[in-house]
């Protein structure tokens, strides 16, 4: 692996007056020895994080500067799915939090071991030049159980973990899986093999209506029972709960109702997905901050579904169509956080941290704080 180029070469070629050439060379040698030109105010902030927290708070960030308002007393890992931001990297490191790359690759390519090796080398090089602490592998593609991709995917995860652990001390390699291991969205993966091969799985306990096999009606993004069924299934296949981080949604779904009954049953359009007759693709994803702004102008006010343990409301759009919005709030998330504690999962995380209102408005600020506060099971809070 070649060393990164010194980007600030200009600084070296025009030394301040009076600095002897030898001192300059020594300075250059030091920088080269450190392998870097670290963009942080303190060079030690470019070092990878080595500490392994007891409880993970794994945050996805999709860009811009909202991260400045996150609750950094809780965050242990930030998966950066937006543009690289060295300021975010430096800041996270100053708070002892890891920053990890996004890993996404076309599965038909990874059957070739040489392709895997070069993909991993490229990601590792990127992680080193950007002072990142690992990678979150996010493959959401279909895999047939009998296809060569099935074993190639497990191999990719294993080889990525081996390389990262070897080359970046303390680094973390994680893999995103669907809410249940039962071939959701036709993803037949070797879940136990992948869990063994990486540090932990991030379970995307949301989009749980991606395949609706029963009635085509609007339902919760992450119903409590359905979410727990997924974890029970992962644990039943003898995946250690400490290998599972629960992902919770900081967004909801807005469905246009073909018909809204008096008892709040919202019939939705049939939009098939990967073999299922209808799907949450009939709805539109909305961030929590938008939901919180809309709720007071709803026709129903905030409602709570006892079976799914989730909040929802109905509203009428300017064209006169009824909508039903399902989402997660501190009440529904705290129930899941309690499960995490009782079953000894590795931690919690959210897609995505940018979804809250960080404008500083007094009402929004309170709502945003409450969302962060419920992440940690009470016993773990000081
Ligand atoms: C899953 O992967 C592991 C490790 O490669 C392997 O030992 C195991 O046989 C695989 N399981 C299945 C069901 O393919
Ligand atoms: C639509 O909703 C109305 C009002 O609740 C109800 O009377 C009617 O039966 C519903 N129609 C269908 C097709 O579900
Ligand atoms: C919505 O209404 C509640 C209760 O009346 C109020 O406390 C809250 O400030 C309102 N939210 C917004 C965004 O106006
Ligand atoms: C959820 O699970 C509880 C406990 O097993 C059960 O009593 C309840 O009926 C379930 N709700 C649904 C909607 O399945």
Question: What topology emerges from the helices and strands here?
Answer:
Elements: H1 9-13, H2 21-34, E1 56-61, E2 77-80, H3 86-94, E3 98-103, H4 113-129, E4 134-137, H5 148-167, E5 172-178, H6 191-197, E6 200-204, H7 224-236, E7 244-249, E8 251-256, E9 259-260, E10 266-267, E11 284-287, H8 288-294, E12 303-305, E13 310-316, E14 322-326, H9 330-343, E15 347-351, H10 362-373
Parallel strand pairs: 1-2, 1-15, 2-3, 3-4, 4-5, 5-6, 6-7, 7-15
Antiparallel strand pairs: 8-11, 8-14, 9-10, 12-13, 13-14
The structure holds 2-acetamido-2-deoxy-beta-D-glucopyranose (4 copies).
Residues 259, 261-262 line the site of one 2-acetamido-2-deoxy-beta-D-glucopyranose.
How do you describe this structure in short?
By secondary structure, the protein is α/β, with parallel strands linked by helices.
């Amino acid at each position: 692996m070649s060393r990164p180029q010194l980007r600030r070469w200009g600084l070296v070629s025009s030394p301040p007056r009076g600095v002897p050439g030898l001192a300059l060379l020594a300075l250059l040698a030091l920088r080269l020895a450190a392998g870097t030109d670290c963009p942080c105010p303190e060079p030690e902030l470019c070092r990878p994080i080595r500490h392994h927290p007891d409880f993970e708070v794994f945050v996805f960030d999709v860009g811009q500067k909202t991260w400045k308002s996150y609750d950094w007393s809780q965050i242990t890992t930030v998966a950066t799915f937006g543009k690289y931001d060295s300021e975010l990297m430096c800041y996270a490191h100053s708070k002892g939090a890891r920053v990890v790359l996004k890993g996404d690759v076309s599965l038909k390519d990874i059957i070739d071991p040489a392709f895997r090796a070069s993909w991993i080398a490229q990601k590792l090089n990127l992680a080193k030049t950007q002072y990142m602490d690992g990678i979150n592998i996010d493959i959401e593609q279909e895999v047939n159980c009998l296809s060569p991709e099935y074993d190639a995917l497990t191999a990719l995860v294993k080889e990525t973990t081996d390389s990262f652990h070897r080359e970046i001390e303390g680094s973390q390699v994680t893999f995103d899986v669907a809410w249940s291991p039962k071939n959701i969205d036709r993803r037949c993966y070797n879940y136990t093999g992948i869990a063994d091969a990486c540090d932990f799985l991030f379970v995307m306990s949301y989009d749980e209506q991606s395949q609706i096999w029963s009635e085509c009606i609007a339902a919760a993004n992450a119903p409590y029972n359905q979410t727990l069924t997924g974890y029970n299934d992962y644990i039943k296949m003898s995946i250690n709960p400490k290998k599972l981080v629960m992902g919770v949604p900081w967004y909801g779904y807005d469905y246009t109702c073909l018909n809204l009954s008096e008892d709040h049953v919202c019939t939705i359009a049939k939009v098939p997905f990967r073999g299922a007759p209808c799907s949450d693709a009939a709805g539109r994803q909305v961030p929590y901050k938008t939901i919180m702004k809309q709720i007071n102008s709803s026709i129903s006010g905030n409602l709570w579904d006892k079976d799914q343990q989730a909040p929802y409301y109905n509203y009428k759009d300017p064209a006169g169509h009824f909508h039903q919005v399902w989402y997660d709030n501190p009440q529904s998330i705290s129930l899941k956080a309690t499960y995490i504690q009782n079953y000894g999962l590795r931690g919690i995380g959210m897609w995505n941290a940018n979804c809250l209102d960080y404008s500083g408005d007094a009402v929004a600020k309170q709502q945003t704080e409450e969302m962060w506060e419920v992440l940690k099971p009470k016993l773990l809070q000081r």
